[in-house]
Amino acid sequence: MSVPGIDVSDHQLLVDWSTVASQGIKFALIKATEGKSFRASTFKDKWRDAKSADILRGAYHFFRPTRTGEEQADNFLQALDSTGGLEVNDLSPVLDIEVKDGVSSDVIRERCLIWLAKVEAETGRKAIIYTGASYGDTNLSVNAQFADYPLWVAHYTRGKPWVPGRWKTCAIWQYTDKGKVKGINGNVDLNWFNGSTDALKAFATGDYSQIRSSSLFDNLINRGDTGEVVRQVQQLLIMKGYDVGPSGTDGDFGANTESAVTRFQGDNNLPITGIVDPATFEKLNQ
Question: Is CATH 1.10.101.10 what the domain over 228-284 is classified as, yes or no?
Answer without folding.
Answer: yes
